[in-house]
Design a protein that fits this description.
Layout (H helix, E strand, L loop, with lengths): L2 H4 L1 H16 L7 H4 L3 H10 L6 H11 L6 H8 L24 E3 L2 E9 L4 H4 L2 H21 L3 E6 L2 E6 L2 H5 L3 H28 L8 E9 L5 E7 L2 E7 L1 H12 L4 E5 H7 L6 E2 L1 E5 L2 E5 L18 E4 L1 H5 L11 E8 L16 E3 L3 E9 L7 E8 L3 H4 L7 E6 L1 E3 L4 E9 L4 E11 L2 E2 L4 E8 L1
Parallel strand pairs: 5-8, 14-22
Antiparallel strand pairs: 1-6, 2-4, 2-5, 3-4, 6-7, 8-12, 9-12, 10-11, 13-15, 15-19, 16-17, 16-20, 18-19, 20-21, 20-22
Helix pairs in contact: 2-8, 6-8, 8-10
InterPro entries: A/G_cyclase, Adenylyl/Guanylyl_Cyclase_3/4, AGS_C, Nucleotide_cyclase
Protein name: Adenylate/guanylate cyclase domain-containing protein
GO molecular function, one term: adenylate cyclase activity
């Protein structure tokens, strides 16, 4: 399923808004000449007179209030997510009962998203249309954050701040799952903008520099303090941490339509240069790497902290996610178990959560065909990444052939292969169907996160 399909309701909503804007008779389309004279400014003011029309405003509100984009249903199903969603906005539910003056420690994975290049919207469209376009994007962002068990903490103009964390994950030792949710969410938001928002607005002459930037980082419990800012009715519960602030810095420094993450998050998931790259800038016609967050702060002793920053290879990573995998006649399933002979209904979806080291994964290959093969078998090929795997021979990479069984009732070949989880990081199982020494299908990749 493509990102365009997932966000098809957003595309339709934007199309409806833009179509309505085209039908209005207004002089604002002559924006360039309008700003050249005092009379032009007067005409500009007249073009906004419709905002006083209560009927128009009520019609606009009816089209945006309580709109559901259908993202949650698709995403949560594809990622095997169940249970109650986080409240949509405001104080994080884990800290909703805090009193003034109270402080608590608690890990935080913080994501900042900002729309860039949106100023021209106000030149091309009237204020209510600009509002509807931006609100469509913000509301779809909120729905995407919620889909991945995140919590939107604050909306700041064109920007959204969200936390990915839960006390339950802390209790169950699954803090890294929050990090997986955050990068999955960010990857979807980037692709939503590139595949749906930008093409739709570019058709109408909106500047090609329109885009979004995302920054994410992880602060351990001992490095994050939650408390009540303000007093009386003017107050909010929020997190204070270097790593929360760095997430905002990463967003500000991220290239257009890119995700930047801090070293703390990269270390938590065991990511390496297979998934990450170094940001570069051009100085005096020379490409220069920017390895550290800027400005490069000094600690209490005056030493540069040299805090590393990375650009996530989101186009590569998107292809690993379950919604990017087209299931036709050949597909892969996986379930978690401790022993090869155990029975398990704990299905694992690609890149959906972390798996503890020491557990096992049963990978199952399925191939539906009318053809009959004399020596049917599946090849299961393991490719490991990360620093732990790099310390062993050939990264621990290996391959295994498993003989396939055939079901005549549904014309299906089937085989399974059991693997133990050993190394922290993002690893890949490549599966293909063979007849003897001849490969019949292309390889499909099934990726898994393994953690401590």
């Amino acid at each position: 399923m493509s990102i365009k399909n997932i966000y098809s309701n957003l595309e339709r909503s934007l199309e409806k808004t833009i179509s309505e804007s085209r039908t209005r008779s207004r002089g604002f389309v002559k924006a360039d000449s309008t700003f050249d004279s005092a009379s032009g400014l007067e005409e500009l003011g007249k073009s906004f007179d419709f905002l006083k029309d209560v009927v128009v405003m009520e019609s606009m509100q009816e089209s945006v209030v309580n709109q559901n984009y259908g993202v949650k249903e698709i995403v949560r199903g594809k990622f095997g997510k169940h249970g109650k969603l986080m409240p949509t906005f405001g104080c994080h539910p884990d800290f909703s009962n805090m009193n003034e003056g109270e402080l608590r420690n608690g890990y935080a994975i913080t994501m900042f998203m900002d729309i860039i290049g949106s100023t021209k919207l106000g030149v091309i469209f009237t204020p209510d249309i600009v509002f509807r376009i931006k609100n469509d994007i913000i509301k779809c962002t909120i729905e995407t954050v919620n889909s991945f068990d995140g919590h939107v903490h604050r909306i700041m103009g064109d920007a959204v701040m969200a936390f990915f964390r839960s006390d339950l994950n802390t209790q169950e030792g699954r803090i890294a799952d929050s990090a997986v949710d955050a990068i999955n969410c960010a990857t979807y938001l980037i692709e939503m903008f590139k595949s749906v928002v930008i093409p739709k607005l570019n058709d109408l002459g909106v500047d090609e520099n329109l885009g979004i930037r995302i920054g994410i980082d992880y602060g351990k419990s001992e490095h994050v303090v939650w408390g009540v800012y303000g007093y009386q009715e003017s107050r909010e519960v929020t997190a204070t941490s270097f790593f929360v602030d760095v997430a905002a810095k990463l967003q500000q420094k991220a290239p257009k339509n890119c995700i930047m993450i801090g070293d703390s998050l990269a270390q938590l998931l065991g990511l390496d240069d297979n998934q990450l790259s170094i940001k570069t800038v051009t100085k005096l016609n020379e490409t220069v790497p920017v390895k550290y967050i800027t400005p490069n702060y000094r600690d209490a002793k005056g030493n540069l902290i040299n805090y590393k920053q990375f650009v996530l290879k989101n186009e590569f990573y998107l292809k690993l996610l379950p919604t990017s995998i087209e299931e036709e006649s050949f597909y892969i399933r996986a379930s978690l178990k401790d022993d090869k002979d155990d029975v398990s209904d704990d299905e694992y979806y690609p890149c959906s959560r972390t798996i503890k080291k020491g557990r096992g994964i049963s990978f199952k290959g399925y191939f539906h065909t009318n053809a009959i093969y004399s020596n049917p078998r599946f090849r299961f090929r393991v490719v490991n990444t990360g620093s732990e795997a790099s310390g062993v021979l050939n990264n621990g990479n290996h391959e295994t052939f498993q003989s396939a069984t055939f079901s005549s009732s549904d014309r299906r070949y089937f085989a399974k292969n059991f693997e133990k989880t050993e190394y922290k990081g993002l690893h890949h199982m490549y599966v293909s169907f063979w007849d003897g020494e001849q490969r019949i299908t292309e390889e499909q990749c099934f990726s898994v996160f393994i953690n401590d």
